[in-house]
UniProtKB/TrEMBL annotation:
Subcellular location(s) per record: Endomembrane system; Endoplasmic reticulum
Domain Ubiquitin-like as annotated: residue spans: 13-87
Name of this chain's protein: Ubiquitin-like domain-containing protein
Keyword Membrane belongs to the record: yes
CDD domains: Ubl_TECR_like
Keyword Transcription applies: no
Record key words, sorted: Endoplasmic reticulum, Lipid biosynthesis, Lipid metabolism, Membrane, Oxidoreductase, Transmembrane, Transmembrane helix
Predominant location category: membrane
Any single biological process term in GO: very long-chain fatty acid biosynthetic process
InterPro entries listed in its UniProt record: SRD5A/TECR, TECR-like_N, Ubiquitin-like_dom, Ubiquitin-like_domsf
Species assigned in the record: Pomacea canaliculata
GO molecular function per UniProt: oxidoreductase activity
Length: 246
């Protein structure tokens, strides 16, 4: 299929970038080709409008159409010389790694603040009272879990998208940080009482925790293998194995 009107596929093209909501023409991009990808268009648009860095851009072929992947070409989309792409501003973005580190660092710091500084939370008398053994174990488990999540974010996870809207970091952090404070307040409270069934319940729960953490880590490693480095797609040949794990 020809990508331009009466010209070869390697001829230069111009396309209009139109605001998806207002319908106004924002700019016209030239020096494009039928094989130019949406990713190329994002870079060209960024040169014209430096406010809109590539991760902040979203393009469609219709004002309310489906978002186009960066790998699509003008040829594959059927866009000819003088055609249009509809632009939507996704707003300020933040990296997924930053979001995850913020989400997981908060619960670690908040819980340990309750555990190590009870006088600040419950009053001066709380600092003189010893913790039950299970409370110390709980603090160790909590620390291990969130330290593991932080290390996985840095060394294991591969994300399908580089960024997300910056507002999400506040929404997600409120959830993680809020429940961390809720759990920490009651587990580390001076009036906390150990489990009714004693060591059997404590060490049984600890064994389940250890197995769960190991299983969780193994799945994260498996999911990592489904996405080759630098790519935003999964390895389809591994879906069946992934489905069994999940």
């Amino acid at each position: 299929m020809a990508a331009t009107s009466g010209v070869h596929a390697d001829s230069t093209m111009e396309i209009q970038i139109v605001h998806s909501r207002s319908g106004d023409i924002i700019t016209t991009l030239g020096d494009l080709h039928a094989k130019s990808t949406v990713g190329d268009i994002k870079k060209a648009f960024f040169k014209e409008k430096s406010k809109y860095y590539p991760d902040r851009q979203s393009f469609r072929t219709e004002p309310r159409g489906k978002v186009i992947k960066d790998t699509e070409t003008l040829e594959s989309l059927g866009i000819k010389n003088g055609g249009k792409l509809y632009f939507k501003d996704l707003g300020p973005q933040v990296g997924w790694t930053t979001v995850f580190l913020t989400e997981y660092a908060g619960p670690l710091v908040i819980y340990l603040a309750f555990y190590t500084r009870p006088a600040l939370i419950y009053g001066a008398e709380a600092a003189t009272l010893p913790y039950a053994k299970v409370v110390n174990i709980a603090a160790g488990c909590w620390t291990f879990h969130y330290a593991k999540r932080l290390l996985e974010t840095i060394f294991v996870h591969r994300f399908s998208h580089a960024t997300m809207p910056i507002r999400n970091i506040f929404k997600n952090s409120l959830y993680y940080w809020g429940f961390a404070a809720f759990v920490a307040y009651f587990v580390n409270h001076p009036l906390y009482t150990p489990p009714a069934y004693g060591d059997i319940q404590v060490y049984g729960g600890l064994a389940v925790f250890a197995l769960s953490e190991l299983g969780n880590f193994s799945i994260h490693l498996a999911l990592r293998s489904l996405r080759p480095p630098g790519l935003h797609i999964h390895n389809d040949t591994e879906y069946e194995f992934s489905d069994m794990l999940l």
